[in-house]
Amino acid sequence: LRNLRTQWLKQYGEEFKQQDILRATLQLLWEEPKREMQTVGCDLAYEYKDILLGDREIDFKTGVLSIQSMITTKSWWDTVDRLSYPVIGYFVQQRPQWGDPLMEEWIKHGNMWLRRVAILHQLFYKD
Questions:
Q1: pLDDT tens-digit series, residues 10-69
Q2: Using CA atoms, how far apart are residues 35 and 32, in angstroms rounded to an integer?
Q3: Contacting residues for 49 by C-beta, under 8 A, at least 6 apart
Q4: Apex CA 52: angle with CA 49 and CA 58, to 5°?
């Protein structure tokens, strides 16, 4: 699994620096039937979190939508937790003007996984 991740980073690393290609790759990984592919997706989301975050509000929103889809589709404790504070926590810390209201929405959301992320994202602030 780590070999696959390393191989992909070497081969496609520059392409993953384009948000649309990265988001499409994450979606394809999430659609794969083997859970190991979701683990690779979590690794890529973390590795390229700055690309997903972007500089503009639209970049932030599309990055969050990608991660939200990953959280609410094929939800497992390990994948959700790996996306919560390492990725979403980072997003919120970097862009509180957009992230804080989002966490207020998620904490009240009907989906338990989004509520969990809204709680766990705060671990990013832990010293």
A1: 777 778 888 899 999 999 999 999 988 899 899 999 999 999 999 999 999 999 999 999
A2: 8
A3: 86, 87, 90, 91
A4: 145
Q: Which amino acid is at 56?
A: R
Cβ atoms 114, 69 nearer than 8 A = no
Residue listed under structure tokens 């509520």: 115
**Beta carbons within 8 Å of 73's beta carbon, 6+ residues apart:** 30
Cα 104 off chain centre by: 18
Q: CB neighbours (10 Å) of residue 110?
A: 6
Residue 3 CB coordination number (10 Å): 7
- φ and ψ at residue 18, rounded to 5 degrees: -105, 120
Q: Which residue reads 């937790």 in tokens? A: 81
Output the DSSP codes for 68-117.
HHHHHSS--HHHHHHHIIIIIIHHHHH-HHHHHHHHHHHHT-S-HHHHHH
